[in-house]
Amino acid sequence: xxxxxxxxxxxxxxxxxxxxxxxxxxxxxxxxxxxxxxxxxxxxxxxxxxxxxxxxxxxxxxxxxxxxxxxxxxxxxxxxxxxxxxxxxxxx
Length: 92
Description:
The chain has a five-stranded mixed beta sheet with strand order 4-1-3-2-5. By secondary structure, it is an alpha+beta fold.
């Protein structure tokens, strides 16, 4: 099975609510690769790669995020470039 790769941008109350760390934990549990980081404008951006079913599970979780988050929207963009390394990291 070929891995799929997406860039994502999340809007809402997603900074200062443990969103990046929670996303990384979910992605690691699902065996996904990539990274997540805050953007200066209050959004969260990331790159994630892995098997389709695991990505769908992460997408479903990200619609709500951690308890204190309020996700207003997520944009998923197909990406041709895979993450540089294995694992999932929180970038600053």
